[in-house]
Amino acid sequence: MRDLKLLRSHDWFTGLGYESVVHRASLRSEGLGAEAFAGKPVIGICNSWSELTHCNVHLRMVADAVKRGVWAAGGVPLEFPTISLGELFMKPTTMLFRNLMAMDVEESIRANPIDGVVLLSGCDKTTPAQLMGAASADIPSIMVTGGPMLSGRWGDRQIGSGTDGRKLYEEYRAGRLTDEQLTEVEGCISRSNGHCMVMGTASTMASMAEALGMTLPGAAAIPAVDARRYQWAEASGRRIVDMVWEDLRPSKILTKEAFENAIRTDMAIGGSTNAVVHLLALAGRAGVPLRLPDFDRLSSQTPFITNVKPSGQYLMEDFYYAGGLPAVMKEILPLLHKDVLNVSGKTLGEGLADAKCHNRDVIRTMEKPLHPEGGTVILYGNLAPDGAVIKQTAASPHLLKHTGRAVVFERFEELKAHIDDADLEIDEKSVLVLKNAGPTGGPGFPEWGHLPIPAKLLKRGIDDIVRISDARMSGTSFGTDVLHVSPEAAIGGPLAAVQTGDEIELDVPGRKIELRLPPEEIKRRLAAYKPALPAYRRGYGKLFLQEVTQAHEGCDFRFLHRENGEGTP
């Protein structure tokens, strides 16, 4: 006999009280019979579908597959929408709205007669936002990601959205690609539903959801249009019903050990630098004491073994055929906590027992890695006392130890207007700096950190220089980009003191980023710094600017951290 006390919906739909009668009547208007509420779990399907979010545009079909699974397992599926965050369209950045979406997800779950929830995500910020909301609500939850697009093709060349798009556009800016060729690339780089097919933020966060144990194993890399993704969605629909009866909540899955597994996996796949910010925020929602130094500690102990763009050669479709995330995690299993629980009800070790690698050029061994350390490195110094990040596996090796003259832009608009000026004093030894692009300065922590190479350098064949900012960059990007400098310039962080002509030292092996100025000079400049007026004076933007934490704390709202709140009663 199953315990009906586990069903939150029981209080909405049971008995002959007036409220119960009208609750049942309202759903009868949708064609559901009374037997639908006879002690059956109500499963919310949290759908981030939107035609403004091309990565998620197929999630209606995914939702249908989930519903089949819920009905088959004896549950009642009820789909509901939340806001959707489309990475390419939303201005100034989707990161401004990640916390808003997380609040939308949490409150939609909390307010409604839902016993368990299936989270449907795809585009970059939709996955962490839904996980954050579900962690805060803390009812049985399972995630179903939308999957990457099919590999792009241009002539005989395999191309990936974001990564190859940027490289080819730099060729166009340098005059080595014609208008007609650029139009051809536009027509064939994104050729199916799904998110970017490189190891960008969307693929990384789908992998993080799986590594954390919040998805059924094995599906992070299934192409969006592959029938196996819909079969996996249906299986997830069946599984969430059992999770309700087992009372298997995110708080039982999102442990410190699970986060350490996710970080090591992120380092092994060369994941997006954005994973650092999202995992920190999610840990705050889960009440897990995760800090920025944890990432560097685990990165230094974890080899990078996944040969996928932007840090490698292949695309996500190749990664899936090679064995996908289970093959990676099986390879690094000696470094992982094997006994953590996932949504399948099994331990990580049990779930990886049958995992196999089918292509060792795509997924390397720990003994023969692509790099002995993980993809992301954390830097500290007088320029970033609270830390900065760099994806060392996507950077130029000859620039990982470098000292150069700063060329500074105060704002992104200034950089866009003047980066290609013929009289810009910059060369391959320079360090390009952008200020006021962090959580409050952007505002919203935009993806401006992959600063463009000046056209005059591109025309000389120079495709990378050291670039530093308090911004983020797309996970599809590449280059020697120092990001997330914290505290940011807009609140008076040391980056605000940098002026054109100053010397900056980057030492990635030494984990150091230094402004070569006497401390008293930095202090003098910061004392004279005057922050810009707030970008927002009303609405959600004002709330964001008032409450957002810095990059090293996850860019979340502190009042939503677990120690400042509670789960759903």
Please describe what this structure looks like.
With 569 residues, the protein is an alpha/beta fold. The chain has three domains: 40-150 and 192-351, 3-Layer(aba) Sandwich (Rossmann fold); 152-188, no CATH class; 378-532, IlvD/EDD C-terminal domain-like (Glucose Oxidase, domain 1, 3-Layer(bba) Sandwich), CATH 3.50.30. The chain is 35% helix and 12% strand. The protein has 20 helices and 14 strands. The chain has helices at 10-13, 18-28, 59-72, 95-111, 126-137, 163-173, 179-188, 201-212, 227-246, 250-253, 256-269, 274-286, 292-300, 316-321, 324-331, 348-351, 412-418, 455-458, 519-527, 539-547; strands at 42-47, 76-81, 116-121, 141-145, 152-154, 157-159, 376-381, 384-391, 401-409, 431-434, 466-469, 481-482, 503-507, 512-515. The strands form four sheets. A six-stranded mixed β-sheet has the order 12-11-10-9-13-14. Strands 2-1-3-4 form a four-stranded parallel β-sheet, sandwiched between helices. The protein has a two-stranded antiparallel sheet with strand order 5-6. A hairpin with a 2-residue loop joins strand 5 (152-154) and strand 6 (157-159). Helix 8 packs parallel to helix 12. The radius of gyration is 24 Å and the shape is globular. The chain starts with 9 loop residues before the first helix and ends in a 22-residue tail after the last helix. The model has no long low-confidence stretch (mean pLDDT 95).
